[in-house]
């Protein structure tokens, strides 16, 4: 099995090493990671000009590793191009910080998985509230074992996986979930410096359904959310068609 590992936290991120080592138990692993931190870059790509790619000493457990001076989505594209492999699976992460609910709109980790899906590849995104939680490596091994053995990554665009709130010292279990409704909010506060605003981030919480990813997160469970690229409002189409 050929596996491509990408991320948005950059080549030096601990989560990249954890995921690479975990994935190496399942086949030949290749790594394509950004040169610098690329969080919240979403699905942006470099589509004109030039892009720099450097092959470096392979990250722990990988066959080959490249560093891309671009976005997470660029890393998927360049990984496929440079390595010239038929990849069976693309895994993105492990992001240091969760990508739950509406977070997926902005996440470079999730966007990299979606870029793989656009290219016809199976993909999984992994995120954790704190990459230093002691159980992360063992739980990632267990999750990959279950997902790969049962081919759970098939017949959907991507799987978005998030570990539970950092207050839980161990995972209580796994839940198949849907996207929650929590929103990332930014308050822009004008400063004394001309044309400059200070950004204060916060979350807007709402009452979540029992099967939402946010609920699993808050109750100590790993959430596995199948996500689709297609944003078409089919109910609206049907309503307009029948009106």
Care to give the gist of this entry?
With 243 residues, this protein is an alpha/beta fold. Helices cover 26% and strands 28% of the residues.
Structural overview:
By secondary structure, this protein is of the alpha/beta class. It has helices at 14-23, 72-83, 108-118, 136-149, 213-218, 234-242, and strands at 2-6, 28-34, 53-56, 64-68, 89-96, 123-128, 158-162, 173-176, 183-190, 197-204, 221-227. The strands form two sheets. The chain has a nine-stranded mixed sheet with strand order 3-4-2-1-5-6-7-11-8.
How do the strands and helices of this protein lay out in sequence?
Layout: E1 2-6, H1 14-23, E2 28-34, E3 53-56, E4 64-68, H2 72-83, E5 89-96, H3 108-118, E6 123-128, H4 136-149, E7 158-162, E8 173-176, E9 183-190, E10 197-204, H5 213-218, E11 221-227, H6 234-242
Parallel strand pairs: 1-2, 1-5, 2-4, 5-6, 6-7, 8-11
Antiparallel strand pairs: 3-4, 7-11, 9-10
Helix pairs in contact: 1-4, 2-3
Strand order of the largest sheet: 3-4-2-1-5-6-7-11-8
Strand content: 25-35%
Q: Which bin fits the share of residues in helices?
A: 25-40%
Calculate the mean pLDDT score and round it.
Answer: 94
Q: Count the DSSP helices.
A: 6
How is the biggest beta sheet arranged?
9 strands, mixed
Distance from first to last alpha carbon = 50 Å
Shape: globular
Poorly predicted runs: none
- Tally of strands: 11
Order of helices and strands: EHEEEHEHEHEEEEHEH
**What structural class is derived from the secondary structure elements?**
alpha/beta
Which radius of gyration do the C-alpha atoms yield? Answer: 18 Å
């Amino acid at each position: 099995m050929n596996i491509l590992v990408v991320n948005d936290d950059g080549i030096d991120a601990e989560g990249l090493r954890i995921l690479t080592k975990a994935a190496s138990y399942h086949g030949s692993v290749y790594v394509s990671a950004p040169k610098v931190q690329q969080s919240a870059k979403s699905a942006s790509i470099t589509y004109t000009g030039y892009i720099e790619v450097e092959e470096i000493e392979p990250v722990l457990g990988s066959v080959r590793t490249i560093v891309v001076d671009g976005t997470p989505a660029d890393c998927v594209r360049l990984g496929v191009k440079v390595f010239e492999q038929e990849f069976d699976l693309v895994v993105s992460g492990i992001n240091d910080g969760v990508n739950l609910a509406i977070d997926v709109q902005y996440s470079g980790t999730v966007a990299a998985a979606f870029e793989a899906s656009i290219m016809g590849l199976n993909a999984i995104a992994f995120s954790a509230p704190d990459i230093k939680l002691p159980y992360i490596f063992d739980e990632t091994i267990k999750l990959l074992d279950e997902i790969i053995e049962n081919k759970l990554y098939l017949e959907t665009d991507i799987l978005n996986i998030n570990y539970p709130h950092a207050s839980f010292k161990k995972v209580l279990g796994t839940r198949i979930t849907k996207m929650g409704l929590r929103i990332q909010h930014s308050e822009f506060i004008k400063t004394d410096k001309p044309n400059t605003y200070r950004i204060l981030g916060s979350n807007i919480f709402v009452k979540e359904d029992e099967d939402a990813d946010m609920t699993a997160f808050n109750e100590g469970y790993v959430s596995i959310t199948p996500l689709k690229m297609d944003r078409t409002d089919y109910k609206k189409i049907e309503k307009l068609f029948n009106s």
